[in-house]
C-alpha cells in the first residue's frame, strides 16, 4: 500500500469541472443516491442502512457498522469498500470524487477490516485504510494509512503503530 492516493483524473478546458457535473453521472442516479444516503443515513437500523447502501453499489461487509449521519459519496458509492467489523463514526464522510477548477478526479476508497474511524472524519477519494487501523475523530484522511496504525489530525498523520496489548479492553 502506497502513501499517495490513487485517482483517475479528467481535465476540463473551459469552466470549472463542477459546472459539468451532469455529464459525469446520470442526474437521476445522483438524485436517487442522495435521497437514500441522506434520508436513511439517519436510520438507527444498521441492517437497513447497509442493505440500501449495498443496493447503491457500495461494498459493505455485513458486520460493518455505519453510525448515524455517515455520508457516502452520492456520485460514486460503488467505489467504496468497507471491510469486516469496521465502524464509521457519527457524521463521517467518504468521498470518491473531487470537482476541481481544471479537473475532475475519482478514486476508490478501501477501508480494511477492524477499522475504526472516529466521528466527523473525512476520507478523500483514492485512499486505502489498512486493517486494524484507528482514525481519530475530526481527522482528514488524504493519503493511504497502513494496517495497525493510529492516526489523527488534519491531515491525518500516524501517531503510532499498534501492538498486541492495544487489542484488549
Low-confidence stretches: none
Average pLDDT reading: 91
Strand content: 25-35%
The structure class reads: alpha/beta
* Quaternary form: single chain
Strand order of the largest sheet: 3-6-11-14-16-17
Helix content: 10-25%
Instruction: Count every helix, treating DSSP H or I runs of 4 or more residues as helices.
Output: 3
- The counted number of beta strands is 17
How many angstroms separate the termini?
29 Å
Radius of gyration: 16 Å
Query: Which term fits the overall shape?
Result: globular
Describe the structure.
With 169 residues, the chain is an alpha/beta fold. The chain has three helices and 17 strands. It has helices at residues 21-24, 27-40, 46-55, and strands at 8-11, 59-60, 65-66, 71-72, 80-82, 87-88, 93-94, 97-99, 103-106, 109-111, 116-117, 122-123, 128-129, 134-135, 140-141, 149-152, 157-161. Strands 3-6-11-14-16-17 form a six-stranded mixed sheet. A hairpin with a 3-residue loop joins strand 8 and strand 9. The radius of gyration is 16 Å and the shape is globular.
